[in-house]
Amino acid sequence: MRAATTQAIKFHIMTTISTTFETEYEEYKRRLHTEQGQLIKRGMKRKAEAGGVTGKAPLGYVNRRRGYEAWVEIDPVKGPLVQKSFELAATGSYSLRQMQTILTQRGLTARIGKPVSLSVLHQMLRNPFYAGMVVAGGATVTGKHAALVPPELFWKAQGALGARSEALL
Predict the structure, then answer these.
(1) Cβ proximity of 112 and 24 under 8 Å
(2) Is 51 exposed, middle or buried (0-12, 13-18, 19+ CB in 10 A)?
(3) Which tens digits make up the pLDDT trace of 66-124?
(4) C-alpha distances in angstroms, 31 versus 19, 73, 134?
(5) pTM value?
(6) What is the maximal distance between C-alpha atoms in the chain?
(7) In the beta sheet, which residues pair with residue 109?
(8) Residue 11 phi/psi, 5° resolution?
């Protein structure tokens, strides 16, 4: 009887130690994951504030990497087509659907090879990245990448897009 009681006590102690260790280990992993996430966010914010790119390059650009160094370059195929989209938008003479048709006929496609959707085209035309700017934490800073369109063309396109949307109201 005494051996059974000793075995039960040993089992209880080992179970308690094991459960406590597992709980502490899970808490450690959770804290480590949170701290790593905060470090990554901080690093990405600093990079964006310095004009760097922190994710996939927008349509018309390609990501490049050498070791730990990463940057974006203008895509030699899609870049000129994206530039054409800003030229078309700046005239104020084309709807998004008309621009989409023209650009699709010229060969502009999304990453997956399908024609660029109207929403992607609209987002692209509103993105200051194409004029060499990066938005970081609500502030716009000069990017380290080459501008695909001159700032004047970007702002002219913004004016034309705004005028077209006001005319629809």
Answers:
(1) no
(2) middle
(3) 998 888 999 999 999 999 999 999 999 999 999 999 999 999 999 888 999 999 999 99
(4) 18, 37, 32
(5) 0.71
(6) 96
(7) 115
(8) -60, -45
